[in-house]
Amino acid sequence: MTLLTYQVFKTVAEQGSFRKAADILGLTPSAISHAVSAMEGELGFTVLNRSKNGVTLTNYGEHLLPYVNAVLNSDESLQQAISEFNGLKRGKVKLGCFSSVCTNWLPDIMRSFQKKYPDIEIEVFQGTYDDVTYWLKNGVVDLGFLSTSSAKDIPIEPLWRDPLLCIVPKGMKKEKDTDYMDIGEIRNHQFVTQRESTDADIQNFLKENSINIQSNYHVVDDLSTVAMVANGFGICLMPQMVMRDIPYEVDCYPVQPYAERVIGLATLHPEFLAPAVRSMYNHILENYKEDF
């Protein structure tokens, strides 16, 4: 099988459509279909389910995709190394990140990096902690921002300490005359919560302090969570970085005992990075790493 075959398979899997894959790759839908059929004939099993609603991966296809990504990433690394030998800084870097890093750090990272390396392309994937972990393990992204607690077995370089805050409706009368919210007071409030894949560090804080929260509100994104709080439906816990982007009027208090998430830069094989990826990795560490 050729690299083009692998690229066709990857693109069809991502787009869920032969026609969309054809548009992206500059081929005809029939050429895409032929390439996939030839691939399946050579493999001896089907990798895609075809239906009127689109195209999905078979079980075999799902297991094969990470290996295809690895082959394509290896070819990209080879092309980057050749460019580097020729004195050129070219290639592509694929970054995975969660929302607060995407809004607070990424614009500056991209501008400063592209100023230094104008011929290196940057591709960004935004999602939850679980999404970024999946993308790293399956070769979809080269580098990913995660909290150190969510990285698990993926190597991660700590960058930034991000304190957790308790967010309450604007002007809410506190039980205690303090400039923080302690565990006892937090326990007495209705909560607006997010999925665990979105706020793993907050869930850890609640578990460590034996807080069994009561909530009728289970939302996904940071903005929706704070909007619910601003309108009096409960309180929530948020990392400090998140609150830089929030337009709603709320009050923010440090939590007691102190808690934080540590944001880090993760990659599966930090010792074997393609030249362009290595340049981005070093650029981020040089500009965003705190002293630990």
Automatic annotation (TrEMBL):
Residues 1-58 form the HTH lysR-type domain. Pfam families: HTH_1, LysR_substrate. Signal peptide: none annotated. Keywords: DNA-binding, Transcription, Transcription regulation. Belongs to the LysR transcriptional regulatory family. This is LysR family transcriptional regulator.
